[in-house]
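Example record used in the benchmark description.
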Amino acid sequence: MGQGQYRVKSTLFDDLNKIDNKIVGYVQKGNAKAYKKSLDELIGMIVREGQKVSSKEIVESDIIVPPADMTLEEARQVFKGTGIFQG
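Model output (structure tokens):
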């Protein structure tokens, strides 16, 4: 998402997955406004609720969240099927 890495508690996974599923639907329908709003919501939740990983620490990412400025066309390559969160 262009803001570094975050650790997110597993208790948030269901909420993040619900937002992710909404994004998939909006992308499939071509609803750019709703897609953008939900992507901002997803990123905001991660930033608010997650713990930022120090830039000195090297950790492998389980999920890579796209940046907030990703276009709807670009999102069609990322948010398909089950989206970026499995489950």
